[in-house]
Recover the amino acids of this structure.
């Protein structure tokens, strides 16, 4: 009884704990969280890629401006317009500075994109590993839960009274058998065994005599001579005396 009560208390405590922290639910939530991170990571990588693309376009535009301004400077010099050539040269210098900055930013953006892709690749590999590990753990947990149910069922079956009832009934039958055997011995002790034996032998002899009589009547055996001598009658004695 105490073991059953203790098991009941443990089951209630385990139920509250399992409701608060179920390994299967937590692992499934971890898988969902990792899957949810993929779109956010792709969005971040897309932003890095977009920045790199914008910088590439800006670099191409600055290169076109450099080429255009260089041509204008040369054309102004050939036309003898040093004033215009100087103005174009100043613009060209500014554009070249902007191009240098853009190229530096583009290099950084490309490196960031490459790093982001490497991080994503590592994350996807780790995500796949952890997902598979979580799925295996969930299967093991479900198998363990099933084994726990079977073990609890077998434990309850063994302790719930089957074994105790079996032993108790066997013991009762053994006690009843011993009592009846003792009563039988006492009853037989009150019977005259010798008298029973003599009666049985007498019945056998009587049966044998009856069988012999039937055989004699049937002519199967010769009649047995009487063991007693013939008795003399009174008439016979008087005849002997007369003679």
């Amino acid at each position: 009884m105490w073991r059953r009560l203790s098991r009941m208390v443990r089951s209630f405590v385990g139920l509250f704990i399992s409701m608060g922290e179920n390994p299967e639910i937590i692992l499934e939530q971890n898988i969902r969280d990792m899957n949810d991170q993929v779109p956010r990571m792709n969005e971040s990588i897309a932003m890095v890629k977009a920045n790199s693309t914008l910088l590439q376009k800006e670099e191409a535009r600055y290169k076109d401006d450099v080429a255009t301004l260089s041509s204008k400077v040369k054309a102004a010099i050939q036309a003898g317009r040093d004033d215009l050539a100087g103005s174009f040269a100043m613009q060209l210098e500014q554009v070249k500075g902007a191009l240098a900055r853009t190229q530096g930013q583009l290099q950084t953006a490309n490196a960031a994109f490459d790093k982001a892709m490497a991080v994503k690749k590592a994350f996807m590999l780790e995500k796949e590993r952890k997902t598979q590990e979580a799925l295996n753990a969930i299967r093991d947990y479900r198998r363990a839960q099933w084994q726990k149910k079977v073990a609890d069922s077998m434990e309850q079956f063994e302790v719930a009274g089957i074994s105790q009832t079996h032993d108790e009934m066997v013991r009762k039958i053994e006690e009843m058998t011993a009592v009846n055997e003792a009563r039988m011995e006492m009853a037989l002790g009150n019977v005259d065994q010798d008298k029973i034996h003599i009666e049985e032998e007498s019945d056998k002899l009587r049966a044998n005599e009856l069988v012999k009589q039937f055989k004699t009547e049937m002519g199967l055996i010769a009649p047995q001579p009487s063991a007693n001598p013939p008795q003399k009658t009174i008439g016979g004695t008087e005849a002997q005396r007369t003679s």
In short: The CA atoms of residues 180 and 186 lie 10 Å apart. The mean pLDDT is 80. The helical segments are 2-20, 23-78, 82-189, 193-217, 234-242. DSSP finds five helices and no strands in the chain.
